Amino acid sequence: MLRSFSPLPRARLRLPSVRNFSISPSRQELSPQHAIYVSNSVNPYFNLSLEDWLFRHKNHQEPLLLLYRNDPCVVIGRNQNPWKEVNMTALKARSIPFIRRRSGGGTVYHDLGNTNYSIHLSRLTFDRHATAELVRRAISTLGVDVRVNDRNDICVGNEKVSGSAYKIVNQRAYHHGTMLISTKLDTLGALLRTDTETMVTKGVDSVRSPVCNLRQFSSTIDHETFVDAVVSEFRREYRVDEPIRYVNDGEGAEETDYIRNGMAELPSWDWAFGQTPEFTYSIRPRFEWGEVTIEIRSKHGIILETRATSGHSGAGLEELGRRLEGHKYGFVEEAIVKDVVDRDSRCRDVWEALAGAMETYNYQP
Ligand SMILES: Nc1ncnc2c1ncn2[C@@H]1O[C@H](COP(=O)(O)OC(=O)CCCC[C@@H]2CCSS2)[C@@H](O)[C@H]1O
After folding, report:
1. 164 CA to middle of ligand 1, Å?
2. What are phi and psi of 11, to 5 degrees?
3. Which of 177, 180, 338, 356 has its CA 20 to 30 A from that of 219?
4. What is the radius of gyration, based on Cα positions, of the chain?
5. 148 with 258, same domain?
6. Can you list the GO cellular component terms from the UniProt entry (predicted)?
7. What CATH number did the domain enclosing 291 receive?
8. Domain count within the chain
9. 115 and 50 housed in the same domain
10. Exposed (0-12), middle (13-18) or buried (19+): which is 309, by Cβ within 10 Å?
11. Shortest-distance atom of ligand 1 to CA 109
12. What are the C-alpha distances in Å from 54 to residues 50, 82, 247?
C-alpha cells in the first residue's frame, strides 16, 4: 500500500451558527452611511460578509474604508482551486478553515497578526495604485520604509508585507489588502500548498513571494497603530472628517439578512468547493505489484472522469474509475467503491492512493 488510508470526511452542508454576532453594542441597525468602519469581530465569515454588504449598499460615489483582522484562516481567491492552493492535511491538523472570498487574486494566510484594509470608491475615481500609495504613506508615518511594486504588493526590500485583490461591480470598486504585522510566518508557510505541479487548473494561480512582518522593523507597530495610521491617511486623502464606526459582534445580527446569508454561503460546499474551475490531477503511485498512472478530471468540484492505467490493469480499475464519476471530488464515500475494492486488493491499493491524493478538509464554523 502506498499511503496510510484516512477515511474521507462526509460532505456536510450544515450552515454556520449566526447567533454570535451583531452589528453594534446598542443593537443600533447597521447603516452604510458612515465612511470609516473598524470591525471588532475576528470572525472571518462575518468580516468578509460585512465587507461585501458595505460594498453593495454604500452610495456608489462616496469613499469608504473598512479595517478588520481575522482568526487564523486561509483565504483563497474567487477563481482558485483550494486543492491546489491549500495544504489540506496541515489545515486539518490545526482545525483552520480555508475560505473562498468574493474578489479575485491569490491565496493568503490570516491570523490576528495580519490586519486587512478595504478601500471602496466609485468606479470612476478608483485607481489601485493610488490606494496602495495611501497605505504606503500610512506605514511610512510609522517609521518603516516600504515600497509598492508593479503588482501592487507592498514590500520591505524584496519581502512582501501586503498583497492586494480587487472587485468591481457596476459603479463601485474596492481594493482590499493584507498587512503582515506580526503573523506566524511558519504557519503561513505550512498551510500554503507547494507540491501540486501535476494538478493543472484553470482559473488563477497564486504568485508566491518571500514575506516578512512589519514588526521586524519597528517594535511599536501593532494592529491599533496601523489602523490609526490608515484612518488618518484616508481622512487626509478623501477629506473625510468623521469618527470611526466600530462594528461589534455579539448580538442582534438578525437585522441584516444580507450578512447572515453571506455567512451561511461562504462555508457551504456549493461556494467553497463547487466554484472550483476545471482541473486535472495526475498521480503515479507505485506499489509492490507495479506502478499505476491515474488522471482525475474535475469541474465545479465534481469528478468528471478518472482514468487508471497500469501494466496489470484489468476491468477492476476501469470500474473503480467509473464509480467515482459524478461524485464530489474529495468527498467520495468508500461505500461507493466497496464491492470493487473488496474483491480486488490492487483496486483497494489504487483507491487508497486516490483517496489520499484527494484529501479535503471541510471545516464547518
Ligand atoms: N497575509 C499575507 N500577506 C501578504 N502576503 C501573503 C500573506 N499570506 C501569504 N502571502 C504571500 O502571498 C502569496 C500570494 O500572493 P498573490 O499575489 O497571489 O495573492 C494575494 O496577495 C492576494 C491578496 C488578497 C487580499 C485580501 C484582503 C482581505 S481578504 S484577502 C502567497 O503565496 C505568499 O507568498
Report:
1. 7
2. -70, 125
3. 177
4. 23
5. yes
6. mitochondrion
7. 3.30.390.50
8. 2
9. yes
10. middle
11. 8
12. 6, 26, 12
Q: Does residue 198 share a domain with residue 61?
A: yes
Atom of ligand 1 nearest to the CA of 116: 28
Q: Tell how many helices (H) and how many strands (E) occur in the chain.
A: 11, 17
In this structure, are 121 and 185 located in the same domain? yes
ipTM, two decimals, is 1.00
Distances from the Cα of 104 to the Cα of 80, 165, 170, angstroms: 8, 6, 16
Cα(41) to ligand 1 centroid in Å equals: 21
Domain check: are 57 and 204 in the same one? yes
In tens, the pLDDT along 259-278 reads: 999 999 999 999 999 999 99
Give the pLDDT confidence of 53-100 residue by residue, as tens digits: 999 999 889 999 999 999 999 999 999 999 999 999 999 999 999 999
Q: Residue 124: inside a domain, yes or no?
A: yes
CA–centroid distance, 180 to ligand 1, in Å, is 10
Q: Which residue has the cell 506605514?
A: 139
DSSP letters of 233-287? HHHHHHT-----EEE--SS-GGG-HHHHHHHHHTTSHHHHTTTPPPEEEEE--EE
